C-alpha cells in the first residue's frame, strides 16, 4: 500500500491540509482535556488508508498490518477472503470462542470489500451463530440486518463466500436445509418484494436452488412488521416476521452477483458451489443479454412507480426525447449528466442542478448539471415559429410563448458511464466534434467553426465528407409518404428568396396539408412572416429532398426503403443520423440543500422527559411543577449517572465541582450492585448507569447560562424527551445554549450538519465560486489547465481532490457554526477564538468533514467556494471516497472542528443503525486506488477519438474501447491520478438554470400534478394519458387503498400524553392520563386524492380498469363515511 | 343536551355525577336502563357518583336495540319463504368518528359480557384498584383482551379491559390446564376470568376462563324439509375460475344431471346460500389485471347473473358479498349496489355480510369469513386445511371476528354485527377455499370451498384449495352431504 504517488504540488497540498488538520486536532484536544465532554480527548480517529479504517471500524487489533501485507500481491477481494480465513484460524486477533472468531472474520472481510467506509460490517450483521443439522453436524448461521443494504450486492454475496471459506478452515459442516425451510425462503422473499424494493427478484426456482445449495445458512433479524402466512413457526427459524437482511443478501447478493461469486470460487478452488453454473447458465437473464447485444430496445423500467408531481420528460426512446451527446463536462460524469440550462427553463423549471432524473440508459438514474455548450430544446411558439433555444436568457423570455416542445434537446453522457453500467454503446448522434475530426482526418486541417451553407455544401462536394450536423435533420423520424409529400409541396409552392438564403412556403396551405408538422418532425427550424413559413439557409435541405436549384423535383420514385438512404441517394452526399436513439427520462427526486434536522429538531441532547411538553422547550422544563407541592424546575428524567473518581460525588455532568473528569457509574440492573465493568461479574448481565431520578433542572439551567455569561433571551431552546444512547449521557447544556443562540440544530451525535445533493466537479473558475484567483493561490492552486500561471479570476483550474464547493445556504450555516465554535471555545472552554469569521467570504478555506448516510467514515474536505445551486459540488474522488456516486444521492458536510470537539460515541443511539451516519473514523487523504471503483471508470480526455464515434454505430461493448480512452483507471498509481484531467464540453456557469425545482416551489400535491400534466401535454415525446394513468396506478390508488385500509384498522392516540393504543379503550379516555383520545387516520387523509383521481381519470380517459378501480373505491369511501339514515334525506326532505 | 336530559334523573334524585361516570353512562347502549339500575343499587353514603360506584352486577340490561337492523321481508315465493333478521344493508350509521369506535367496542362488551354474566359473578375492574382486599380472595372479572404478552419465565400475561378500567391477569405456566385454555385467547375477545389476587393486589392469577360459548343443547331440533346447498368463492372473471366444473354444477342445479343420484338431490333443493366472492373483482391485489379473463367488474357480474338466472324458479337463492365483491371492504359489508342487483332475476335475494336469515324456520348465519385469516394466524393448531376449527372458535366466543386492527377492516357501526346473539342452526363461511363441516352443540358449521383453482399467491403461501366441492344439508335432519364436481 504505502504512500500515495503524487506530484510535487499535490504533495504540498496534502501537507497543507494535514497541517491545518493537526492544528485543529490540537485545539480540540486542548478544549476536551478540560474534562467537560464525555471523553477528555477527541473521539474521531484518523485513518490514513483503508487498512487503518478497517481496523478502526471493527476494532480487531493487528488487522491493518495484515491488510497491508496481503494487498501487496492480492486483489482487494482475494485479500478480504484470505484475511477472513486468517482471523477465523486465529492468526490475527484474539478470540474466546470459535463463534466470535467466525463473526469477526466475516465482519472484517465485508469491511474490506466496502473500503472500510460503510456501516454494513458493524450494523449489517447482527451476529453469527452455530446451528444443528438433522444429522447432528453443526452449520453456520449469519444473521443479517437491514443495514447490510449499504454494503452493495457484491460485498453481500462475498460475505457468504467468506463464511463458507472460514467454515472449511475450522471444520464446521454445511447447512442442510429442511424442505419447509426452503419454501419459507420462497414465501418470505416474495413477501419482502411486496413491502420493499429489490434490485433483482429471483424466480422461485432460483431461490430454491440457492437455499438448497448454499453452504451457509443466510438468516436474519426480523426487519418488517409483516409475517409470513404459510410456513410459520419453524424450528430453526426464530421469527415469523420478514427478515429484510436475509432477503437482500439472497436476492441482490447471491442471485444478482452469482457470476462474481463464481469467479472467486474458481480462483480459490472451493468445491460445493458448482450449482452456480446451473444458476448462471439456466437463468433467463442470458436471453436478455443476447437481445441487448444485437439491438438496444426501448426500456420502460424507469417509468415504473411514477409519482404525482414528478414529470416524465420523454417516454422510452421516443422521437422528441433526449438526444444523446457523448462527452464529459467539468460538472458531469460519475452518474451525473448534463443538459442545457435553456431546457431546464423550457421544461417548466422542474430540472435544476442536482435534480435526479430516472433515465432509460445507460444507468438507472443521473444527477443533472447545467451544460450550456450542448443543444437546448426545439419548441414551437404560439405564433407558429419553430426555433431551438440554446441560452437561458432567451428561454426565460420565450417560456410563456411555448406551445409545444418538439424536442427536449441533448443530454450529455460520458463514455465512462456506459462502461460503468456495462451498457453497449449506442449510436452517437452526429455532432460537431465528430464532424470536425472527420474533417481533420480527410483534409489535415482544423475544421472551420460555424461554416455557412455554401461552405458546408462545398465541403460535401469536394471532400465527400458527411453533411455538417447543423444541416443534418432527423430524417429517420418521418415516413416515406411524408417525405414525398414534403418534396412535392416544396417543389410546387416553395419560393427562394434573398439569393437562396431563405425558402418561403405558404403557411395556410402548409398547415392544411400537414407540411408544417413534417418540418417540425425533421427539426427544420422556421419562422412565420406574413403568413409565410420562412426557412433560413435552406440549400442543403433542398438538396437533401432531391430538389434542384429551381426547386424542381429530380426524381419520380423513392430509390430505397429507408428515408436516410433516400436522402443519401438523392443528395449525392453522405448524411449521418442526427438522433439515432433517444433517451427517455423522468424526474426522480428533487435536489436538496438543507440543514440536517432531526424531527422534532433539538438544540441540545439533554433529556427533559414530559416536562417540556410536546415542543420539548427547555424553558418550560425549568419552570415545571409536577404538582402543587413540588419544587419549581424539579423534573424526573432517565439519565446516566457519573461519579467523580477523586471525591466520589455523583452527578450527570462530566466535570465534578472539584474539577475532576467524571466516569460513568455502572451498576448491575439485576443484582443492583455497583460494578465498574461492562458485564456484571456475578450474573453476567450488561451493566448500566441509567437511573430515573429527580433533578433540579432549574438550577442546571440557570447555572449553564451563568457559566457562559449569556443572558437568557432565546426564543426557542429545545432538548429531547429521552436520550437514546446506552449510558444516556446528556450533552452539556452550555453547548445547546450557544447552538440556540446561533440558530443551529444538533444531530444525534452532537454535530451540526448540512445536507446537499452530490454533483461532481473537476475544474473550477474563481469568478463563478464567489472567490478570487488570489485566494486560490493562497490555498495552494498554482496554474490553470493549460499550465499557465494563475492570474485572472476567469482561468479554468483543476479542482483539488478534497476541495468542496457548497451551496450558499450551506455556507451561511457553516458560518453560523464557526461563530458557535468560537463562542464555545471562548465562553465554555476559555480558549482563544479560532475562526473569527464575519462573512461567508471569510470561511473559504475552512476544513470540513464529508459524510454519507449509511456510512461511518468521514472524509476530510476543505471549502473552496460557493454556488447558488442547491448542491454540493466536489471532486468525483471525494464522492467516491464516501462511497457515493452522483445519481441524485445526497450527503452532508460538517465543520471539522465541530466534529472534533462535539462528536462523542456516548450520544449515539443504542439501536440497530445507531452507528450509521456518524464519523467513527476520518479519512484524511484520498487515495484514488482506495475509493469506490466506480470512480476509476471516469474518462478525463479533452475529446473522444474518431474511432470512438464510429464504433458506437455497432453497439460495441464499451469494454472494448477501454484501452483507447483516457480513463482514471489507467492513471492510478502515477502522479497523473490527480493532475491533468480534461473535459470535452465546457460550461460557462456551473450554477446556471433555475435555482429551485418547480417540484419544491409548487404547493399542494394537486398543484404539482397539474404542472406535471400540463408539461406532459406540451412535450411531443410524452403521452399525457399514459402519464396520468401511471400516476393514478402507482401513486394515488395505492394511497387511497392504503389509507382506507388503515382507517378501518387504525390505532388511537392520546393528545395529552402521546400514548398509543391498538384500539379504542373501552373507557373512551386515555387509561394512563385520562386525556382525550383521537384517531390517527382521519377521513380527510383517506379522501385526499379521491376527487383529483376521478377528475384526472376522466379528463385523460385512462383505461376502464383503472377508472373502475377509482369508481369502486369512491363507493367504498362513501359507504364508510356516510350515515345511511341521514343520506336518504336529500334537499327534498326540507321542502 | 342529550347528556343533560339523561342525567337529570340522577340529579333530581340528589346525586352529583363525576364527568367520567357521566361519560360512561351516556355512552352506554341503554343509558336509561343503566340509570334506573344505578338509582336502585347505589350506596346511600354516596353523594358524588363516580365510576367505581356504578356496579354492573345484577344489571340486566333491557335490550331494545338488540338486533341491529331488523328487517322481516318475506319472500313472495311462499313455498320457500325467506326472511332477513339481521343485516347492515341500508342501516350503516358509521361516519368515521372516534366515539364510534368506542361505542362499537362497548356494544360488543356489553352484549358478550351479558352472556357470561350468569356464570361469573364479576365486578368492575375499577373497583379492584385502590381498596385493598384480602390477598387470596377469589374474584372474577369480565374483560376484553387488550394485550397478550409472554413473560420471560414463560407465563402468559393478559391485560383485560372493561368500561371502567383495565386489569392484568397472569396465566401461569405451572397450571397446565388454564395455561392451555389461554392459548386460545385472541386480542379483543370478551371472556370471564376468575382467580386470586396477588399480595400487592395488582395482578390476578387466573384459575378459570369462561368463554361465552353456545349453550349445551340437545340435538332435537325443529327443522324444515327439503335441502339447502351452500357455496362461496366462485371467483368468476379469474383465469383460475374452474368453468367446466362450474358448468357441471349448474347442470346439476338445473336438475339436468345424467346422474340419477344427483338429480334426486336436485329435486329436493329448496335453497342455495352463497357466502361471498362471487366474482374475482378488480384491483383487489396488485397485478390482478394479469390474472383476469374478464377485466370489467360489471361484465363479471353479468356473467354471474347469467348463471344464477338459470336456476329453477322454485329454488330460492341468497347471496352475500365477500372481500372480492364490489362493495365496501370494511365489515360489516352492505349488500351489492342496485346496479349489480338489477342484473339478477328479482327472486334472488341479496343480503349483506354478515347476515342472519331465516329459511323457512331454519336460522342461517352467513359470514364470508375474512376473520379466519386472523384465527389461523393467532391460535395454535388452526390451519387453512380445517376451516371448521376456526369457525368453532367463532361460535365459542359468540363472535365472528374478534380481533381488531389485523386483517379484517371494520366499520365502527353503532352495534357490533359480529356478535352472535341468536344461535343459528347453520353457520356458513367461505373465503379460505377449503371445505369443512362440523356439528357443535346443535349448530352446523359449514365452510363451502371454492370454484377457483390454486392461484399463484396461494402456491406461495402454501394453501391448497379444495375446489368444486359442495355441501348439501338436509333441512329436516341437518345431515350434510358432500358433492364433488
Automatic annotation (TrEMBL), chain A:
<keyword id="KW-0548">Nucleotidyltransferase</keyword>
<keyword id="KW-0235">DNA replication</keyword>
<dbReference type="Pfam" id="PF22912">
    <property type="entry name" value="zf-DPOE"/>
</dbReference>
<keyword id="KW-0808">Transferase</keyword>
<dbReference type="GO" id="GO:0003677">
    <property type="term" value="F:DNA binding"/>
</dbReference>
<dbReference type="InterPro" id="IPR056172">
    <property type="entry name" value="PolC_DP2_cat_dom"/>
</dbReference>
<dbReference type="GO" id="GO:0008310">
    <property type="term" value="F:single-stranded DNA 3'-5' DNA exonuclease activity"/>
</dbReference>
<keyword id="KW-0269">Exonuclease</keyword>
<dbReference type="GO" id="GO:0006261">
    <property type="term" value="P:DNA-templated DNA replication"/>
</dbReference>
<comment type="similarity">
    <text>Belongs to the archaeal DNA polymerase II family.</text>
</comment>
<keyword id="KW-0238">DNA-binding</keyword>
<dbReference type="InterPro" id="IPR016033">
    <property type="entry name" value="PolC_DP2_N"/>
</dbReference>
<feature type="domain" description="DNA polymerase II large subunit DP2 N-terminal">
    <location>
        <begin position="12"/>
        <end position="281"/>
    </location>
</feature>
<keyword id="KW-0540">Nuclease</keyword>
<dbReference type="InterPro" id="IPR004475">
    <property type="entry name" value="PolC_DP2"/>
</dbReference>
<feature type="domain" description="DNA polymerase II large subunit DP2 catalytic">
    <location>
        <begin position="712"/>
        <end position="1008"/>
    </location>
</feature>
<keyword id="KW-0378">Hydrolase</keyword>
<dbReference type="Pfam" id="PF24846">
    <property type="entry name" value="PolC_DP2_cat"/>
</dbReference>
<comment type="subunit">
    <text>Heterodimer of a large subunit and a small subunit.</text>
</comment>
<dbReference type="InterPro" id="IPR056171">
    <property type="entry name" value="PolC_DP2_central_dom"/>
</dbReference>
<dbReference type="InterPro" id="IPR054475">
    <property type="entry name" value="Znf-DPOE"/>
</dbReference>
<dbReference type="Pfam" id="PF03833">
    <property type="entry name" value="PolC_DP2_N"/>
</dbReference>
TrEMBL record, chain B:
<dbReference type="GO" id="GO:0006271">
    <property type="term" value="P:DNA strand elongation involved in DNA replication"/>
</dbReference>
<keyword id="KW-0239">DNA-directed DNA polymerase</keyword>
<protein>
    <recommendedName>
        <fullName>DNA polymerase II small subunit</fullName>
        <ecNumber>2.7.7.7</ecNumber>
        <ecNumber>3.1.11.1</ecNumber>
    </recommendedName>
</protein>
<keyword id="KW-0548">Nucleotidyltransferase</keyword>
<dbReference type="GO" id="GO:0042575">
    <property type="term" value="C:DNA polymerase complex"/>
</dbReference>
<keyword id="KW-0540">Nuclease</keyword>
<dbReference type="InterPro" id="IPR007185">
    <property type="entry name" value="DNA_pol_a/d/e_bsu"/>
</dbReference>
<dbReference type="InterPro" id="IPR012340">
    <property type="entry name" value="NA-bd_OB-fold"/>
</dbReference>
<feature type="domain" description="OB">
    <location>
        <begin position="139"/>
        <end position="200"/>
    </location>
</feature>
<dbReference type="GO" id="GO:0008310">
    <property type="term" value="F:single-stranded DNA 3'-5' DNA exonuclease activity"/>
</dbReference>
<dbReference type="InterPro" id="IPR011149">
    <property type="entry name" value="Pol2_small_arc"/>
</dbReference>
<dbReference type="InterPro" id="IPR029052">
    <property type="entry name" value="Metallo-depent_PP-like"/>
</dbReference>
<keyword id="KW-0511">Multifunctional enzyme</keyword>
<dbReference type="GO" id="GO:0006308">
    <property type="term" value="P:DNA catabolic process"/>
</dbReference>
<dbReference type="GO" id="GO:0003887">
    <property type="term" value="F:DNA-directed DNA polymerase activity"/>
</dbReference>
<feature type="domain" description="DNA polymerase alpha/delta/epsilon subunit B">
    <location>
        <begin position="229"/>
        <end position="431"/>
    </location>
</feature>
<dbReference type="Pfam" id="PF01336">
    <property type="entry name" value="tRNA_anti-codon"/>
</dbReference>
<dbReference type="GO" id="GO:0003677">
    <property type="term" value="F:DNA binding"/>
</dbReference>
<keyword id="KW-0235">DNA replication</keyword>
<keyword id="KW-0808">Transferase</keyword>
<dbReference type="InterPro" id="IPR024826">
    <property type="entry name" value="DNA_pol_delta/II_ssu"/>
</dbReference>
<comment type="function">
    <text>Possesses two activities: a DNA synthesis (polymerase) and an exonucleolytic activity that degrades single-stranded DNA in the 3' to 5' direction. Has a template-primer preference which is characteristic of a replicative DNA polymerase.</text>
</comment>
